[in-house]
UniProtKB/TrEMBL annotation:
It comes from Nemorincola caseinilytica. Pfam families: CM_2, DAHP_synth_1. Its EC number is 5.4.99.5. SUPFAM superfamilies: Aldolase, Chorismate mutase II. This is chorismate mutase. PANTHER family: PHOSPHO-2-DEHYDRO-3-DEOXYHEPTONATE ALDOLASE, PROTEIN AROA(G).
Length: 359
């Protein structure tokens, strides 16, 4: 069984960075008495700008090793190159993780994978900084190819130009959900600390993640968060972590409640037939698009028509609002439909252009 399936939810906690021996031992002592499966601490910190706290490297690995021995708790740290891997193994790190700024670079992931060839150690892979599920999966595949068997993914959100919607990193939930769809057996954890960047919102995002079938949580925990050398605003104390964990509702994918099961099946049947109608309607709409494309070809008009598109966004959004749907949702939905509609029309225009050249 996977190392990461020993608890549900599987909880990883510990400071953003290992700052000194006392800090590491203090937090390890507190967490080892709680329902925490793995102690995390960064010893090499990839920071946005130079001059910030970048970790204590090998010295910090010794503190982690001491914490593991004293408090009998497995330990994990981030590795970003083969030298990190070598040192982490030397100091008995139990689980490695690859950070978002490394996952984004296939060359670097391959260097790490090569250093792990023949090593039996669980590895966690954070999402790349950009919302690219194939790149995330690609990093996992590189590890699998060198024989790493126990792999988990961590969703830490996606970096943007600014913090939007109150999140430090955009959660963009469809991306990890797609990863889970592609790989049903892969444990996928959520890192609410990096997604929120704000300790006040960790409980809310943790619950949301569990309700979206995430298998565990990685939560940054520090003895004195406000004094932390990195990511102070998003770290919490072990006591605060205990409160959050105690408040989480853990729900199951399935139920043994027969009447609940029956109601669910009934509602799903209704959805099945509505979805069949939706798909048929979309297909009919796309047929109309092809016809519009043919008219545009005859009249020498562009496929994309900004004024009409604006009108669609406004009118469909307004109708959505009257039905209790958000304008944002309707816009996103229509963006997809519009994109496909344009693709179909471009194909019509292209085909016609090919024909006229041949004639
Ligand atoms: C269908 C048209 O072509 C494009 C596709 C649209 C659509 O699918 O709704 C809207 C405007 C155009 O960008 C059109 O011009 O009406």
């Amino acid at each position: 069984m996977s190392f990461f399936r020993s608890a549900r939810p599987y909880i990883i906690a510990g400071p953003c960075g290992a700052e000194n021996r006392e800090q590491v031992l203090t937090v390890a002592a507190a967490l080892s008495g709680m329902n925490v499966q793995l102690l995390r601490a960064g010893v090499w910190k990839p920071r946005t700008r130079p001059g910030s706290f970048e970790g204590h490297g090998e010295a910090a690995l010794q503190w982690l090793q001491e914490a593991k021995q004293r408090y009998n708790i497995p330990i994990t740290t981030e590795v970003a190159d083969p030298a990190h891997v070598e040192l982490a193994l030397k100091y008995g790190i139990d689980v490695l993780w690859i950070g978002a700024r490394t996952t984004v670079n296939p060359f670097q992931v391959q260097h790490i994978a090569d250093a792990l060839r023949g090593v039996d150690i669980p590895v966690m892979v954070k999402n790349p900084v950009n919302p690219d599920v194939a790149l995330w999966e690609g990093a996992i595949e590189r590890l699998e190819k060198v024989g790493i068997k126990d792999i988990a993914a961590i969703h830490r959100g996606f970096s943007g130009y600014t913090a939007a919607n109150g999140y430090r990193n955009q959660p963009n939930w469809p991306v990890p959900i797609e990863l889970k769809r592609r790989r049903p057996a892969l444990p996928v954890f959520c890192d609410p600390s990096h997604i929120t960047g704000d300790r006040a919102r960790i409980a809310e995002v943790s619950q949301k993640a569990l309700d979206m079938h995430f298998d565990g949580l990685m939560i940054e925990t520090h003895p004195t968060p406000d004094a932390a050398l990195s990511d102070a605003a998003q770290q919490i104390t072990p006591a605060q972590l205990a409160t959050i964990l105690a408040g989480l509702i853990v729900r199951d994918e399935h139920t043994h409640d027969m009447s609940g099961q029956e109601q669910l099946e009934y509602l799903r049947q209704l959805m099945d037939s509505l979805d069949a109608e939706i798909v048929d309607l979309i297909a009919r709409r796309m047929e109309l698009s092809a016809q519009v494309g043919a008219v545009k070809q005859l009249c020498n008009m562009t496929a994309y028509q900004p004024a009409r598109w604006r009108e669609i966004v406004e009118t469909r959004g307004a109708r959505g609002l009257t039905q209790g749907l958000t304008q944002e949702f309707i816009t996103e939905l229509y963006e997809k439909i519009h994109h496909e509609s344009i693709r179909i029309q471009l194909a019509v225009l292209e085909q016609a252009a090919g024909k006229s050249v041949k004639e």
